[in-house]
Design goal:
Strand content: over 45%
Mean pLDDT: 95
Radius of gyration: 14 Å
Distance between the termini: 40 Å
Number of helices: 0
Low-confidence stretches: none
């Protein structure tokens, strides 16, 4: 099973930027879709962004389009989430999830996912 470790969270002022990283263990990273979710205080977990493993296509929630960018470096077994123009409502714990190896997803927000990271806190002050 792949293990995931997120990093890069922190406190930032509104309008600022952060880059989150999610490092994966194992040899099958390049054949897995990678997905970012977040869970704000008192809110349900929600889909943020995804990147397929075969085509490299990216998908975003409407509320982050134009502000966040997902990317991956298969040589480093790492997926990134570059966040810009941050808003206080982006405050949340951000989680990465790894899809099943070789699995083609219809809905990235629904999984199934093989592994989850522990999460990294992002706090955006107004």
């Amino acid at each position: 099973q792949v293990q995931l470790v997120e990093s890069g969270g922190g406190l930032v002022q509104a309008g600022g930027s952060l880059r989150l990283s999610c490092a994966a263990s194992g040899r099958t990273f390049s054949s897995r879709a990678m997905v970012w979710f977040r869970q704000g205080p008192g809110k349900d977990r929600e889909f943020v962004a995804a990147m397929g493993w075969s085509s490299g296509r990216t998908f975003y929630a409407d509320f982050v389009k134009g502000r966040f960018t997902i990317s991956r470096d298969n040589a480093k077994n790492t997926v990134y989430l570059q966040m810009s123009s941050l808003k206080p409502e982006d405050t949340a714990v951000y989680y990465c999830a790894a899809g099943r190896s070789g699995y083609s997803y219809v809905r990235y927000d629904q999984g199934p996912f093989e592994s989850w990271g522990q999460g990294t806190q992002v706090t955006v002050s107004s």
